[in-house]
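CORE FACILITY INTAKE
Project code: CF-77B
Contact: R.S. (postdoc)
Sample description: multi-component assembly, four entities in total
Requested service: structural model of the whole complex
Turnaround: standard
Below are the sequence entries exactly as provided by the requester. Do not edit them.
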Amino acid sequence: MAPAPFPVAVGGANVAERAQLPPSLAISTVIFALKPAPDGRPTLWVPLVRRVREPYRGSWALPGGPLTASESLEDAARRNLAETTGLDPAYLEQLYAFGGLRRANRPDIGSQRVVSIVYWALVRAHETEFGGELGEERDNVAWHPAEPSHGGPAELAFDHREIVDYALWRLRNKIEYAQVAYHVLGEMFTLAQLREVHEAVLGRSLDPANFRRQLKGTADLEATEHYLEGGRHRPPRLYRYTGPRGL
Amino acid sequence: MAPAPFPVAVGGANVAERAQLPPSLAISTVIFALKPAPDGRPTLWVPLVRRVREPYRGSWALPGGPLTASESLEDAARRNLAETTGLDPAYLEQLYAFGGLRRANRPDIGSQRVVSIVYWALVRAHETEFGGELGEERDNVAWHPAEPSHGGPAELAFDHREIVDYALWRLRNKIEYAQVAYHVLGEMFTLAQLREVHEAVLGRSLDPANFRRQLKGTADLEATEHYLEGGRHRPPRLYRYTGPRGL
DNA sequence: ATCACTTAAAGTCATTTTGACTTTAACTAG
DNA sequence: CTAGTTAAAGTCAAAATGACTTTAAGTGAT
């Protein structure tokens, strides 16, 4: 039997039977990218997929799909993300497993239980192009500001608005103990670029001089002998992240 | 059909069929309690259950079991914990979903896939009594030091040793932004008791005066008009936690 | 009742860290 | 050569931290 399409219940079974089915497992991803908001300032955006079936037909939802028997959780997250958006982030991390009973528990689909394991990532600007193999589905994938206050959709399918809000909260706490921010940048970056990431995530501006001083205390940053030229000003030195990469 | 017993594969299906089964979902719990280690100093202990079936028959494992269709993830964690140990922690939090392919992937059980969602908690001393309804299973439940360096078992069933280590790591990071520690104490507690919890979790001693000063900066602590009497010294004031309780 | 003993709670002080700001350096565009 | 721009380093007062001292308030023994 093919896996049930996410996040709709298994077809065929009636409501009473569905209530007895074991919970099905799905994987979703929240991908954050740094793009200029409508007001011009760089903010966090997420890719969303428009639903073409009930429930929530026409609403925007997080990219996701089922977990198959032969792949790890992270592999499943990557595969679903590639299939729905063509994206391929360098860094993925598990966010949370959502399995409350009210999820997808609507009259029209019965009480089939769906547990979603959600992964999240921060991607670089050049990784935000949707894959070219999507065909006609291309129109149903788009980047949106992560927060309604920056122009993002106030309502998403299922409980996906709450999931994005939770991911934002985690991101803002996690950046305090760093590391996450580096994955949004390339191999080498200037301190100003790194500061821009921190400012977008935290939602406030940081003093350049103090930011520089504090990062010097962190041993995970290494100065290279390269400089970024081309600006109409003194060229900034490029740095490299030397800390841990995965969990 | 009854849910599959945790964490053994569904009986009846042969190995080839098992590989095609959708992943099954199980819930486990890591319960930390503060007890004196063999050396007398208070350290972290966890309740473990001895396995009575293959695989890992005779090894110690985390309490856990299957997720049924009609309960939330946290409810399932509570129910499984009560059934296997009789424990009922006041506070439970989700730790992580483990679903790597090597989990339980042994020749004798085929490649049935088990995804475990792990919850964790810190409990008070008076909550460490195992329930009285366990009967003959009582001998197969026991508290063990969480760390091998304090006398705990170096090897556990499945990947449970890694899970406990990860929970310890999360605990030591999380206590920095507090809150977790309060759940190990009662409604009211002295600053010395709170300091003992922090010391056990962090594994080092803290200066009483500085600890007091730093907590006064935290608004989540409220001094009561009660004092703990009975010691052969000046009675300490009792405090109350006023911060958030759940997620 | 007095005294030695113990821990609570507050205070002291030098050092470190932080936040706001200033100065100097090094490039580009005209 | 000059004005404009940002990089990078430096200054300084305020706040936080770590090690330590002093005083308070109970207990049990004499």
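Facility notes:
- The radius of gyration of chain B is 20 Å.
- The first strand of chain B starts at residue 24 and ends at 36.
Invoice: internal transfer
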